[in-house]
């Protein structure tokens, strides 16, 4: 029933739960999805931030907290696939990647920036950990694939191609978000072309080996690593809401799909009840595009905090976390760490919730099992 492989790991259903930080997708949600045959994903950002007033940025604390969540998820879903989402914009991105690999995560989903550098400590794990860049264009996919092939002798184990209807940080200019030329349907085809080039390279190598074995030997050796993967799986993401959407993108050529917003409205989601209720009570007019200190636009549910921000009434930012490489407290409009910590607890006077474009279509909280059954009902 549309089973597939993420690197070396077989997955029963073509469903990936998107990583949602801070603290929205932890071991509870990830393990529930993994038990039901999908890929569960822990968001690696900010796991040690328990007190927005006193927490500090401590590498060891974040490392230990992430590894504890991974171990808990693997214990709760011993036969499932557990991934970790790491934002490349984080100042401790490489440390989180290493920690995840050491703790036994099956996959790393790398977004919010181009993952052109992978720590050697992670590469040393070989195919025990799948590496999955999150991209928003075929150009980015090709750049990553070629860079990894040249530097590491391997290609991505999959791509997540995220369209402009996704939640959280978006890899588009604000003017591109509503452009047909940047729709998921269009950019999916572009990334599929990059993935399919692995097949073409493999076929070309075989032809060379058969017809020009001696002359082409060195060229074949240089290109053989691409041919190791008959096809890089492509996971479509952004705005996927129903089982019909799932079937549609699989029919277009995607190997699997990724959903985040749908999984917020589940009992197993690790966020507070107030956070979940903000989703199921939202209306279409509540969804807006906002600026982020990450340097990318983001999609979120309107809140008192965001209304105050729009009016320029926020207080001076005092950086307690040093979480982002690019953040300058003197110029940033707000501290995103504090805002997301507050929202996770249900405090929307001090924070906001990132969401997908279809968040307003949610009307009830269900179990992960019910949601997985719904999403897979149109699969063959």
General description of the model:
The chain is an alpha/beta fold. The chain has two domains: 4-266 and 365-375, Aldolase class I (TIM Barrel, Alpha-Beta Barrel), CATH 3.20.20.70; 273-361, no CATH class. The chain has 13 helices and 14 strands. It has helices at residues 27-35, 59-76, 93-103, 120-123, 138-152, 184-211, 217-227, 243-252, 261-264, 273-280, 304-310, 336-344, 368-375, and strands at residues 4-6, 9-11, 15-17, 39-43, 81-87, 107-111, 130-135, 159-162, 168-169, 234-237, 256-259, 287-291, 297-301, 353-354. The strands form three sheets. It has an eight-stranded parallel sheet with strand order 3-11-10-8-7-6-5-4. Helix 3 (93-103) links the parallel strand 5 (81-87) and strand 6 (107-111). Helix 1 runs parallel beside helix 2 and helix 6 (184-211) runs antiparallel to helix 7. The termini are close together. Residues 212-230 have low confidence and may be disordered.
